[in-house]
Amino acid sequence: MLTSQDIRFSVAPMMDWTDRHCRYFHRLLTRRARLYTEMLTTGAVIHGDRARLMGYDAFEHPVAFQLGGSEPADLATASKVVADFGYCEVNLNVGCPSDRVQNGAFGACLMLRPVLVADCVKAMKDAVSLPVTVKCRIGVDDQEPEQALFDIAGQCVAAGADALFVHARKAWLKGLSPKENRDVPPLDYALVHRLKRAFPKTAIAINGGLTTIEEMRAQLEALDGVMVGRAAYHDPTLLLSVDREFFDEAPRLADAFMAVEAFIPYIERELAKGEKLSNITRHMLGLFAGLPGARSFRRRLALEAVRPDAGVDVLTSAVDEVTSAMARMRDADAA
Q1: Which residues bind FMN (predicted)?
Q2: Are residues 275 and 230 in the same domain?
């Protein structure tokens, strides 16, 4: 069973972004945030290279796994694999609007089939003792959001879902790209608040459009948790505030410079295994956002980390761009 503390702050599952390197880095920045994998389909889990696709470092915990699929039996089988790998939760994707997901008849398409979603949740619950959760939209296409959201929520709760994560926007399956679906449809936070009042015993977190700590804390007056995606990815220093602001705990690291130092041993281990530096440092490009030298930091990493022989010195040199720019600014201010 999940509590409000378990889902009080989560980093959203994001395709091509929240891989194992990203999650390790995010865990350095916050002890308490709940982290999620990228979505993986049931077919990939059942038939794919599990060690490569599902492997993670124990340091990442608490880390949850997001599944994509619409066949209850396959979701049950895949959930067992997820449980065997030691993840702390399995989440069903009912919100992704991409063409690839639509062609597979899952993701946001499932908003149109709430009874099937309930069957999927029940099959997953029957298969594993892990918490089973659902991430959904407030509707798709011409659905009336109040009816669509309450219908699918009711079905999921009745089937035993342990928590709901609601992206407070509709998804338009035709006419909008996945990127546009994250920005164009209007947000309706009040609808998600009404959902919580209707299902007070169910843990409910909100996702979509939250960019500041103040906005996130305001949502916790009505809901159990917030799930943050792009804001945390593009400016990872936001995560340095999570433990203090949401859990009344001292942060693990004081600033972005300490985060780099803490990440270097992991990077060295991965490079020794044959990993490319750019596959790791691409998740750090926003680390110094807003500071002098941030653009030079990003540029150096983007250009030099892709070299076949790129090592940790590329990262430290990129950080030097920031420290040098800050020193020049201090000198100018003192003059």
Answers
A1: 13-15, 66, 135, 167, 207-209, 229-230
A2: no
Give CA–CA dist 335/324, Å, rounded. Answer: 16
Percent of the chain with pLDDT over 90: 87
Q: Does 107 carry a binding-site annotation?
A: no
Looking at every residue in the chain, the average pLDDT score rounds to 94
pLDDT number for residue 332: 83
Percentages of the chain per state (helix, strand, coil), in multiples of 5 = 50, 10, 35
Full domain range(s) for residue 309: 256-334
- Of 96, 120, 136, 156, catalytic: 96
| CB-based contacts of 147, cutoff 8 Å, min separation 6 | none
Relative to beta strand 40-41, strand 34-36 is unpaired
CATH of the domain at 223: 3.20.20.70
End-to-end distance of the chain based on CA atoms, in angstroms? 60
- Cis-peptide into 62, omega within 30 deg: yes
Q: Does residue 149 form part of some domain?
A: yes
Neighbour tally for 51: CB within 10 Å: 8
Spatial distance between the Cα atoms of 63 and 38, rounded to a whole number of angstroms:
11
Is 207 labeled as ligand-binding? yes
Token pair listed for 259:
């985060």
> Same domain, yes or no, for 115 and 44?
yes
Give the pLDDT of residue 104.
Answer: 58
14 labeled binding residue = yes
Is residue 17 over pLDDT 80?
yes
Helices of type H across 85-200 = 99-103, 114-127, 145-159, 178-181, 189-198
Is 120 buried (19+), middle (13-18) or exposed (0-12) by CB count in 10 A? buried
96 counts as catalytic: yes
